[in-house]
UniProtKB/TrEMBL annotation:
<keyword id="KW-1133">Transmembrane helix</keyword>
<feature type="transmembrane region" description="Helical">
    <location>
        <begin position="12"/>
        <end position="29"/>
    </location>
</feature>
<feature type="transmembrane region" description="Helical">
    <location>
        <begin position="35"/>
        <end position="53"/>
    </location>
</feature>
<feature type="domain" description="HPP transmembrane region">
    <location>
        <begin position="6"/>
        <end position="155"/>
    </location>
</feature>
<dbReference type="InterPro" id="IPR058581">
    <property type="entry name" value="TM_HPP"/>
</dbReference>
<protein>
    <submittedName>
        <fullName>HPP family protein</fullName>
    </submittedName>
</protein>
<keyword id="KW-0812">Transmembrane</keyword>
<dbReference type="InterPro" id="IPR007065">
    <property type="entry name" value="HPP"/>
</dbReference>
<feature type="transmembrane region" description="Helical">
    <location>
        <begin position="126"/>
        <end position="145"/>
    </location>
</feature>
<keyword id="KW-0472">Membrane</keyword>
<feature type="transmembrane region" description="Helical">
    <location>
        <begin position="73"/>
        <end position="106"/>
    </location>
</feature>
<dbReference type="Pfam" id="PF04982">
    <property type="entry name" value="TM_HPP"/>
</dbReference>
Amino acid sequence: MKVISQQQLKPALLAGIGAMLCISALASLEQMSSHLLWLMAPFGATMVILFALPDSPLAQPRNIVCGHLLTSLMGLIILHSVGVSPLSLGLAVGAGIALMMLTHTVHPPAGANPLVIMLTAQEWDFLYSPVASGLVLILSFGWLYHNMLCRRPYPQKWF
């Protein structure tokens, strides 16, 4: 059995604590607000990249924001123009990935957004809440957490 060193344990615990605090803040805001959504499942995967791999290009604000917004927009466009079918689900995910690649804003968790949107029949305001509002909180929290609490520079590049 391999022993976990303190050098491995500290970053793992810090990443877990950061993700826990950020998701807890989003969930608390959602609980306090009767009409606004703050959470969606892909944000859980964003936590992995933001807190465990903050130096990765995938964790930079441009990728997080544009990745989530572009794929969410694609899901809404396909949902409201052609509806939900196996082909349209695939089209929305594939088009979202292509858009992220073409704009150099790949953020893997965002690939799930079209599925979430289409399978739950969301309306256009989903782009505002939880997507945009959640992203503002996530990036603000990530910046504060990394720069103030962990004393490490984040982000490497804003946009």
